[in-house]
Write a structure and sequence with these properties.
By secondary structure, chain A is α+β, with helices and mostly antiparallel strands. Chain A has 7 helices and 4 strands, in the order ααααβααβββα. In chain A, helix 2 packs antiparallel against helix 3 and helix 3 crosses helix 4. Chain B is α/β, with parallel strands linked by helices. Classes of the chains: A alpha+beta, B alpha/beta.
Chain lengths: 167, 436
Amino acid sequence: MSGTENAAPYAPVLVGKRREELEAILKRYPTKMAALLPALWMIQDERGWVPNEGIEEVAAALDLTPAYVKGVISFYTMYHQHPVGRHFVQVCTTSPCGACGAEDVVKAFLEHTGCKELGLTSPDGKYTVIEVECLGACGFPTPVMINAEFLESVTPERVPSILAQLK
Amino acid sequence: MGYPHKPHAKEALVLSQHFGDPDARSLSGWKKRGGYQALEKALGMAPADIVNVVKASGLRGRGGAGFPTGVKWSFMKPGDGKPHYLCCNADESEPGTFKDREIMRWTPHALVEGCAIGSHAIGAETCYIYIRGEFTEPLVRMEAALKEAYDAGILGANAMGTGKRIDIYVHKGAGAYICGEETALMESIEGKRGNPRIKPPFPAVSGVFGKPTTINNVETLAAVPHILMRGAEWYSKLTLSNPKSMGTKLFSVCGNVARPGNYEVVLGFPFKDFLYDLCGGPPPGRKFRAIIPGGSSVPIQTMEEAEATLMDYEGFVAQGTMLGSGGVIIFDDAQNLPRMMARIARFYAHESCGQCTQCREGTAWMTKILERIVAGHGTYEDLDTIFDMSDNMTGRTICVLSDSCAAPVVSAIKKFRGDFEKLIPKKQGTVAVAAD
């Protein structure tokens, strides 16, 4: 379930520089719990998702239970509870973009990445494509996020060249 | 300047005057454009005097509710011995709305300055700017602006050398529309699931970390420095007809329209002019059919209603809808409106936090019914069921997410019933008649 059964032993994230970063963030809030979202971002930035070991690490650092941390993670869509492709493609298909052809952009990404369906990672592990609710760039249909990169005005025709530029 | 297109002559550029100008992003560039003079002035004023200026300006919250900003600030009592907090709501997620994004992308220091003034006015030493996680560029721009402001001594323990402490931090969200609801936003800052809280207590009494808190939208706070520099009277006179709605407002325009983008106009601007002149009308060969003018949570308008609307808080209400966040979503005559409504309902079903039964079940059920109608398997009874459900989804939950799902859908069925009935198989109707 965790996807780490055969993986190398988990190396802690919240050490060294990351630990210093977390300590600095803790000073911003009157409670330790408030650093939970930032700490989870650190795990995901390093690991690409939030494995159970990351949950335990964060829980220990912030005096929370792993169950509590898991409860918070499951509320927020941007934390990955499972490994995803190296390039995580999110296509906005909420109504304004849906009125401007977003579904064709989704189809183009599925076709050109080899992902069989939404949410499934391509066989080469490179891509995962999902539909996402409103990315807040409705005047630039269709907005697409690939990891932290935010693209505006994506059309089905642009999809092959966008993918070609990814490593 | 202007982004993504040059400003129109009928726009009133205050907040958006530097959109598209990368030089305005840096501290030196911002100062060259008059930046941080308002903060300097504010730090020399008593908090109550700042609150009075903002009250007199008539500025109302730009996030959706339109509550008078000065009045909201006056609920905070500096000197009560408790820590106070300012939260800036930059969780812009209302479908159709993308104005705060552009403020943060192009003029991050405008928001830093507004947050600092607001903090001083309400007696807060700490301000959190809650930015949705998907806004990667605004996050980078805001972090860079904050670093510059700290390095220059504008923020920190001795803000601008006045001995006052003002700390401003970015808090990055992680994908949840509901965290734009003010109490959910505070829960999220505290490191919890973004479940809205029951009010009262209101945030000014017990907000983030249980302390007195004010939550303001990005656009609201970005307007404050202009008000302090140019005066409450200048701002209060920025109105075309309505003495209750003043100032400029950014409207985000999207959907089926020739020139999508952000437009800043004085409140009270005629919507017809706005649509056909500023936004360039419908795409070539098409006609406008329907408009949701305040983000997807407000009732839909027919073109007759839209063309008779004056763009202010009361003007939209008079024409059957609300100003909301100012996210204007336009559908042309080639759109399948029931399909769009199904898509809107699906959004709310996805974003419901699940606390209240009426919302958790209602948004999902409404989505299923609408998708069934769109697929050609609906019945006339389905439309009545939706009306029935909407009674239970409106005004009966902790927050208004459930109401926001019902409002566009129910108004669309009322105003465009034929579009829905057209998709219902005829056989249904004849069976019903035969049964009589």
